[in-house]
């Protein structure tokens, strides 16, 4: 129960990693505030959290909108009276095309969600986090570790998010607030399962073969699942990581070494 009695705000809650973050935080003893644009997804996850015996507050939120984020912070503090952790999980994938031809407006839109949205929400919760000597975790990506063609705009946004986390760690450290990053690679959830099925149909092979070929490139020979990524986040939020700030923890099964 590493998060017993704590309150954690999680953005970008959906059926994959966002759900896993909410459930693992709840299992660790936290009450959670769930934020995303789609209310029905929030309600479903909130029901699962309640089944674990913890409180969940679903708050429909657009993190690109200042007023919406202010409402999230306000409602969270009104309901629980404190915030101990913030997980910036909301993201938008920019166009996967070469930087020499990419639509710059679409790149800006990606930055608005992936970087400025995280900064916006963090700034609003700094006073509450300072009171509890809380923790912020940014969900990043293994795109940090490679420069594959067409991933340039995505890497730009995630590299900026890493720089944001490191700079906030320096700014907020004197106030007792820790800021860290978790960078997953593959996440074995619905989106990736759909993609592997698509590749299997295209090649005329089984989805299991696609999985096995991909897993063979990882040291652990297994694609990480949402709860395994979330457990690393729970660690970063918990007192076990009380001397850890400004760091990026790769959770990728050994796909990349850093």
Brief synopsis:
The chain is an alpha/beta fold. It has helices at residues 17-27, 39-51, 66-80, 104-132, 152-172, 190-203, 207-215, 226-237; strands spanning 7-11, 31-36, 56-60, 85-88, 135-139, 178-184, 248-251. The protein has a seven-stranded parallel β-sheet with strand order 3-2-1-4-5-6-7, with helices on both faces.
Explain what this protein looks like in three dimensions.
This protein has 258 residues and is of the alpha/beta class. The protein folds into 2 domains: 207 residues, 3-Layer(aba) Sandwich (Rossmann fold); 36 residues, no CATH class. Helix content is 48%, strand content 14%. The chain has a 7-stranded parallel sheet, with helices on both faces. Helix 2 links the parallel strand 2 and strand 3. Helix 1 runs parallel beside helix 2 and helix 6 crosses helix 7. The longest helix is centred in the middle third of the chain and has 29 residues. It is globular and about 55 Å long. The model has no long low-confidence stretch (mean pLDDT 96). Keywords: Oxidoreductase. This is Short-chain dehydrogenase/reductase SDR. Pfam families: adh_short_C2. GO terms for molecular function: oxidoreductase activity.
